[in-house]
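Why should sequence recovery work at all? Because a backbone constrains its sequence more than one might expect. Tight turns favour small or flexible residues, buried strands favour hydrophobic ones, and helices have their own preferences. The token representation captures these environments compactly. In the example below, the structure is given first.
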């Protein structure tokens, strides 16, 4: 029996080449959004807001699990 670290169940991101001012407005909108009284609030009970995450750190556990299971993302596998 093995228990993994916690990992995000949902994430949102933006294109790397957006204007910095637009990126800041997008982040402000996400981080100021309150889940209470919304479908997200019902789905993610006990969670109140979005939090910043990054692929390198927060998705490490998912990459580890996938590597252990032989998961590979190739054009053929994604069809």
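From this structural description, the recovered sequence reads:
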């Amino acid at each position: 029996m093995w228990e993994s670290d916690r990992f995000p169940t949902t994430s949102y991101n933006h294109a790397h080449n957006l204007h910095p001012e637009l990126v800041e407005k997008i982040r402000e909108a996400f981080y100021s959004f309150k889940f209470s009284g919304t479908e997200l609030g019902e789905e993610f009970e006990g969670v109140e807001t979005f939090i910043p995450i990054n692929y390198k750190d927060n998705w490490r556990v998912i990459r580890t699990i996938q590597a252990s299971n032989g998961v590979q993302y190739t054009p053929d596998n994604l069809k």
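A few observations help interpret the result. DSSP finds four helices and no strands in the chain.
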